[in-house]
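S.,

Sequence below, as promised.
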Amino acid sequence: MHLLITGGCGFIGSAVIRHVLSQTGHSIVNVDKMTYAASEDALEAARHHPRHVLVRADIADRAAMAEIFATHRPDAVMHLAAESHVDRSIDGPAEFIATNLVGTFVLLDVARHYHAGLDPEARAAFRFHHISTDEVFGALGPTDPPFTETTPYDPRSPYSASKAGSDHLVRAWHHTYGLPTIVSNTTNNYGKWQFPEKLIPLMILNALTGKKLPVYGDGANQRDWLLVDDHAEALVAVVERGTPGETYAIGARQPRSNLDVVREICAVLDEMAPMPEGPRAERLITFVRDRPGHDFRYEIDPGAACARLGWRARHDFTTGLRQTIAWYLDHRGWWEAIRAKSYDGTRLGTAA
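The prediction came back faster than expected:
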């Protein structure tokens, strides 16, 4: 297939591109606006790969999107471009509406007209895969069963509301116009190349630089953690084998409280990069006032998706976290440049 991937220089998008080029014969046109969290370095060997082309463009620019479809003639779209940080959405929701809602609408409508002009065989094979989050489902209580593909929507933040709206647009374009769309919802991702505002890299880098480790409330909020490389493999399985009109809930069955995650990071860092005064990274933990509308718990039951796709997460959280911490230790130049240029390490982050 020739894939059009939006947001391919972002955290999850770059992992998808690396997987596609190393494990499949598909080719890629990578459409990315190159906002603050995008990095060409994250493409690694894919950056100059003959089956990869990067086009800098905004998905909300209809003329640019129409030209990209006409020029590159994709067989499928994997739509990952999104504003995704909950705290930023609380501070300034306008960008989230512009990208996540308006951008998705523009991309859908351009794809609809492109799809209508394909020959019958290509039209039947075309797919529009929209990648979303479990935050659209709202919050779980301590004993509630995990989210599934049929959980009702109940978004609680500007970010999750914008993603919920984009999910509904994707399904509407399928039912109204016959565009062969697929939606996948995932839980918190972590791994290499994640921008330092998110929980796991924030805590790793703050600890390495002796900064406080800010934990919202009492740290009891729970998330289900999925290594980004495992998610990338699942997403490629969806676009290759998924059924139009269906939803796939993708998770790893690796739930942890935020405080447990931070403590595990501290324990690994005490082993891998001990402080001069001894193994005491945990002393940097600082409890801070909870953010508005902080959802208590997210967790996905991936059973249906695993059965339909023949996929399962390969990494447990402990193994994946150790690999992630080792990567950040080996790539100081990348994250130190980000912090020196535009980011001071004080913004809190808990959302994937």
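Residues 263 and 282 are 6 Å apart (CA to CA).

Coffee later?
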